[in-house]
Amino acid sequence: MNEILLMLGIFAVTSAISYALISRVPQRLHTPLMSFTNAISAVTILGALLLFSGQTASAPTSSASGLSAIEVVLGGLAVLLAAFNLVGGFAITDRMTRMFKR
Amino acid sequence: MNDLTELLIDLAVIAVFIGGISQFRTPAGARRGNLTAGLAFAIALALVVYRNTFGDVWVVVLAFAVGGGLGYLISSRINMTQIPSLVAFQNGAGGGAACLVSFVELTRAGSELSALNSVFGYVGLVVGGATLAGSIVAGGKLATWFKQQPVVLPGHNAILLLLIAAGVALAAISGTAAAALPVAGIAIAALALGAIFAIRVGGADMPVLISFLNTCSGLAAAFVGVAVGNQMLIAAGAMVGSSGLILTLVMARAMNRRVGNILTGGHMTAPDAAGPAPADSPEVEVPVEAAATAEPLVSPEPEAPVAEAASPLERARALLAGASSVIIVPGYGMALAQAQAEVATLATALEAEGKQVRFAVHPVAGRMPGHMHVLLAEAEVEYDKLFEMDAINDDFASTDAVLVVGACDVVNPAAITVEGTPISGMPILNVHEAKSVIVCNLDEKPGYSGVPNPLYDEPQAVLLFGNAKETVAELSGDEA
């Protein structure tokens, strides 16, 4: 029960802080903001990695991944998609923000 | 390392992420913020690797290298006009990852999730899958792989509800120890849900759909975070969710419409409203030539000392030559014609003649939030020349010449003067108040809303129909 409260708390507090901060982002930065937050949403990659560690909430006991072949494929695909989103998102945001000149 | 220390470290990483977001005030700050968040990500990845031992390491490394390499290559090569679709596809990839992680987490052998983890796993599965499919549809529309017009199926809402109901029923049957088959069924329902949801939104409503999908990818990450019990996922997902929510609301407010109305296809579903968009309908009965040649009938404004028989191009050039203040209003048509470089060249030429040149950007101009700013930045227009609607709207009345490039609905005075149209009440750029207006649109068809633009009939308007890249280049041919 403590755990769920902690998670809810983290969700609520981060949402509130982000909302306050992002409300002040000027319109001209909306596209970079979007690709930037897009890159952050690739945080799912942590979840994908954890699948291979056996350290998630459903933790099977063995220290190896303990995944079946198909689960390895799906997990690998998840890592691939998230890495695409992660690296691509930060790269395109960097490229866009560099274009803006004074 | 005990649990408390781990939690504190996680919170510290989350704080670095937030520090990245807080720098999004200026372009230079945004760049630093982006790098800051990238650093936070590297730390987060390192922490996960440090805290756990992994099986199938080579699969993980290979998948990361391929995905990351592709992401980097595409992002560094792509043309700026393709940014909206790239962002949509990246968004979809994030959703797809969330869907797959949830799937494996729910179905893996020898595991028993708690009821709570399961519920969030199912939600992450559905939101992630729907985000993936919705983003592919949205990205395809933005890349003009398929038509931008909304597609409405018979019983569209009923189909969506049925898919949701099917997903909930399958989840309820599967419970906490799920077999692969029903969970795969839920994933398929989620994909269908996302695709069918997204096909109904099109054209000028795309910015809202893109922002909304951005929200969904964040929420999917947060749900997966609860399912796998990882604080960083929850926090980062919440950040993305907030950001997407704000953008969604900003876009909807700029159109004076409700988010729900837009995302359910709303009333912006005019039959063949193509906007200043693709040149795919030559059949329209309004003869464009007629409009172009009819202009001598309109009494010319006294400030243009040009013979009545002058061509629109000559009149436009004379107007620009005689103006001391010019405001340029870009729209989706500029993006479509890729005319941003020509527009920038013209602006530079006008400035060289000592004129005041500014850009007025409507919040929903283009197909994603901030679309015009990125294009003009690419064309090396200095960003302190770009003004948001509220900052510049009072200045139109005292402006000599306004150049509209590929924008229609956002400068349509019918939004103010006519009741009961799809754009009635939508805040617009008050272009009609300027002393003269030069319109470089593809044709005189209404914008996406389907509402004819009375601006075109105003005596102070000069209409230069055709590809904006060419018409704008012709304009500056004289100026340069």
Quick rundown:
The complex is a heterodimer of chains A (102) and B (480). Chain A has 102 residues and is mainly alpha-helical. Chain A is built from four helices and no strands.
Mind explaining what this structure looks like?
The complex is a heterodimer of chains A (102) and B (480). Chain A has 102 residues and is an all-alpha fold. Chain A contains 4 helices and no strands. Chain A has helices spanning 2-22, 30-41, 44-51, 69-99. Chain B folds into 2 domains: 78-263, no CATH class; 281-475, TPP-binding domain (Rossmann fold). The chains are: A mainly alpha (102), B mainly alpha (480). The interface between A and B is large, with 89 and 123 residues.
SSE ordering of chain B:
HHHHHHHHHHHHEHHEHEHEHEEH
SS-derived structural category of chain A: mainly alpha
Counted beta strands of chain A:
0
Which structural class fits the helix and strand makeup of chain B? Answer: mainly alpha
Strand content of chain A: under 5%
Mind sketching the topology for me?
The complex is a heterodimer of chains A (102) and B (480).
Chain A lengths: L1 H21 L7 H12 L2 H8 L17 H31 L3
Helix pairs in contact in A: 2-4, 3-4
Chain B lengths: L2 H20 L4 H25 L5 H21 L5 H25 L7 H28 L13 H19 L5 H20 L6 H23 L2 H24 L4 H5 L24 H6 L18 H11 L2 E6 L1 H6 L2 H13 L3 E6 L9 H8 L7 E3 H4 L8 E5 L8 H4 L18 E5 L20 E3 L4 H12 L1
Parallel strand pairs in B: 1-2, 1-4, 2-3, 4-5, 5-6
Helix pairs in contact in B: 1-2, 1-9, 4-5, 4-7, 4-8, 5-7, 5-8, 6-7, 8-9, 12-18, 14-18
